[in-house]
Amino acid sequence: MRKFTFAILLSGCVLAVHGQTVLTLDSCRTLALRNNKQINVSRLSKEVAMNTRKAARTKYLPKVDVLAGYEFTSRNINLLSNKQKNMLNNMGTNLGTQVGGDLQKGISEKMTELVKQGAISMQQAQQIGAMIQQAGAPIGQYAAGIGNTIGQQIVDAFRTDTKNVFGGAVILRQPIFMGGAIKAANAIADITEEMADNDESLKTQSTIYDIDKVYWTVVSLKHKQKLAYSYRDLVKKLDDDVNKMIRQGVATKADGLKVDVKVNEADMDITRVDDGVTLAKMLLCQLCGIPMTDKITLADEVGNGLETSNVKFTDYQPDSTFSNRPEVRLLQNAVDLSEQGTKIIQAEYLPHVALTGGYMITNPNVYNGFQKRFSGVWNVGVTVQVPVWNWFEGRYKVRASRAATSMARMELSDVQEKINLQVTQSRFKVKEARKRLVMANNNVKSAEENLRCAQVGFREGVIPSTDVMAAQTAWQKAHSDKIDAEVDLRVSEVNLEKALGILE
For a Cys-Cys bond, which of 36, 206, 214, 361 suits 376, CB 3.0-4.6 Å? Predict the structure, then answer.
């Protein structure tokens, strides 16, 4: 595709002459391509697609997340239950009671045995028991105090300070196998970027096509404007001659009225063509993105005729034409997108494997008795996700996606067939336009000779004014047909270039 630059624009495509801007066809194209909002939107879409493609590439790379947080809790974490803490707190009391009871029981049994043997009397045994009971109380109290102290120390050792908790983690996840979803997503990103480029090409060709048609319409109207003034001059000259002949008594007043009608018709034609030129130039300015009030002159509107192009189109090759047409490329993109969409659907129902790893840190340190310091641990692992049952959801979705792909292929085939027909029709129209131009040039020569003969015969008085007016009308029509044939040839060539996808 031809690239138009501002350097070209400044180097001669646009010239200021007598307060007007002279525009060539290339300069009109340049202005339109620069100012067209839809083309600018397509260029931004390309930028979006490019960054989306770059983002898709990152799906192959590991993802790393960093987490950090603080939490305040109303209670501390306790490793002992309430029952366990009560047992430990009363451990000394229970132990002292047991020790004192066991001592008294043993002595009582021994005194009973001595009494039975007659070694001591019952009274003596009671006195000795009373003395031992008084002596055992302090021992039990002592054992209870020590035990309670030890139990409290154990409870305190299991107590934690975890109301204020700080934590952080670094998490890594590396996809290993996602069922082909990542590859398909990257393919879709590539296709989307290509679609944005094809869309820009399509809008560029459409803009150039519109500019060319309006440009040659303005040129045609401008040349017809010159023709209208020339025709009026011919009719007015005839009117002057007829008026002289009326005054000389050679012609009748009726002859003068007939010529007056032709003069009025010529003036109306000038008015219509002037309005047409103004409106056509306003439309061209609008397409070029310049103020419609600007006074512009087209390079091809000067002179007495249009230069016909000698463009020779190569033999029609369908494959190359299809590759050149952005419409076909966009439809092919749609087919490719549908195929990749099917792969993504299939990937949802295949096993997914990922490598995981990370480092976690906490304060209090949960790995060393809840110390008030930061400490952490590394971890690494593998996760596997296997879909087991989904009520054939995946099968139905795949079938629907494949049907959509078939529809896209049919639309592509249909457009290709229409393009074949369009190219053939455009080639025939170019041939017809060239033949029509040759015939129009021949008709102009005949009309000019016919008008010359009629004027000579009128001056010699052998041909009436009506024959002269008929010759003038034929002359005007021949020149008008020539202008139409010249412009039609240019437009038909533009149509063929668009059909072949080489309009640039």
Answer: 361
SS3 at position 17: strand
Q: What is the CATH code for 6-35+178-297+313-350+387-500?
A: 1.20.1600.10
Please state, in angstroms and rounded to a whole number, the distance separating the CA atoms of residues 82 and 88. Answer: 10
pTM of the model: 0.74
- H-helix or E-strand containing 381? strand 375-385
Compute CA distances 175 → 58, 90, 178, 181, 343, whole Å. 11, 57, 7, 11, 17
Contact at 8 Å (CB) between 30 and 3? no
HSE (CB half, 13 Å, CA atoms) of 439? 10
Q: Is the pLDDT of residue 251 over 50?
A: yes
- Which residues on adjacent β-strands are paired with residue 230? none
Q: Per the structure block, which two tokens stand in for 426? A: 């455009």
Q: 239 pLDDT band (50/70/90 cuts)? A: confident
**Residue 71, class by beta-carbon neighbours within 10 Å (0-12 exposed, 13-18 middle, 19+ buried)?**
exposed
Sorted by where each begins, the domain ranges of the chain are 6-35+178-297+313-350+387-500, 82-159
pLDDT digits (tens, 9 = 90+) for 406-416: 999 999 999 99
H or E element in which residue 378 lies:
strand 375-385
Quote the DSSP letter at residue 504: -
